[in-house]
Amino acid sequence: MTEGNSIGIAVVGVAGRMGQMLAQAVLETPGTHLSGAAVLAGHPWVGRDLGEAMGGPALGVIVEDDPLEVFARSQAVLDFTTPAATVDFSVLAAQARLVHVIGTTGLEREDLEKIAAAGRHAVVVRAGNMSVGVNLLTVMTRRIAAVLGPEYDIEVVEMHHRAKVDAPSGTALMLGEAAAAGRRVNLADVTEAGRHGITGARAEGAIGFASLRGGDVVGEHEVIFAGPGERVVIGHIATDRMLFARGAVRAAIWGQDRPPGQYTMIDVLGLRDPAAEVPDR
To answer: Is there a catalytic annotation at residue 164?
Structure first.
């Protein structure tokens, strides 16, 4: 449902740290309202007011365990959950013709194929990172990779908090895809990760990944182009997770009245170069 011209945005997985930030971002954004909040069946938050469950004043939004009911009164859904849950939500979002904003990482090829099928019926905005700065970094990575030849070795280095469960991060893979696109190669064919022991010399044209974990690091990414006599280094440091949440809300608003299809934050931010595709994972 709408409230005047306000866009109804739902949040799934709302009890998680990121879910709560997404809900807060919706509440802070003019022209939107929190149309629903969902968690898994059996969660202790079910039936409670979301604001009180989060330790604050009541918001008048009751936490539910039936996403279909929540989707029925929404125009968009923000989803930073798990791969299996996201695939299920993509089917429901497509049926309801919602804008499905996906920040879930760790998606496998078969998950992406199912999400692509949903994108034939509804707007799907999926990105490994929703921040403006990281998406600018992605565009820069593709352009630099296109200019520098294979004699420049590419390494993507990322660091996150100790509790992160997947590696490389979705953002690192997004940057790797951009570098591969700049060189017009398939990332899967040139990826080099997990070095240990006697590995032999680095293969020319490889795109390497290094994943660091520790403390409460929100997210740090660096792309290194190491060539003869010089290195070109570009990067991004996130210090506040709310920037990802605000980007997701921006994507939900942007997706209204768009034709069905798969989009990325590159599209949302108007950074798409029509002459060169920038893949996003």
So the answer is: yes
Binding residue positions for (S)-2,3,4,5-tetrahydrodipicolinate: 161, 170-171
Residue spans in the chain of domains classed CATH 3.30.360.10 = 132-238
Q: Annotated binding residues for NAD(+), as ranges? A: 13-18, 103-105, 127-130
Question: Bigger pLDDT: 240 or 274?
Answer: 240
Cα–Cα distance list, 234 to 19, 32, 164, 221, 273 (Å): 30, 35, 23, 9, 20
Indicate if 114 belongs to the active site: no
Q: Indicate whether this model's pTM tops 0.70.
A: yes
Residue closest to 120 by CA, chosen among 224, 232, 261: 261
Separation between Cα atoms, residue 246 and residue 215, nearest integer Å? 24
Could you list the residues known to form a binding site, using ranges.
13-18, 103-105, 127-130, 161, 170-171
The interaxial angle of helices 132-147 and 242-254, nearest 10 deg, is 80
Question: Domain 132-238 carries which CATH code?
Answer: 3.30.360.10
Instruction: Compute the half-sphere exposure of residue 129: CA atoms within 13 Å on the CB side of its CA.
Output: 28
Q: Which CATH number fits domain 7-126: 3.40.50.720, 3.30.70.100, 3.40.50.2300, 3.40.630.30?
A: 3.40.50.720
Catalytic, out of 100, 160, 221, 236:
160
Dihedral sign computed on CA atoms, order 4, 69, 79, 76: negative
What pLDDT digit, counting tens, does each position of 189-229 carry? 999 988 889 989 999 999 999 999 999 999 999 999 999 99
* Rounded Cα–Cα distance for residues 185 and 241 (Å): 32
CB hemisphere CA count around 261 (13 angstroms): 8
Q: 11: exposed, middle or buried (C-beta count within 10 Å: 0-12, 13-18, 19+)?
A: buried
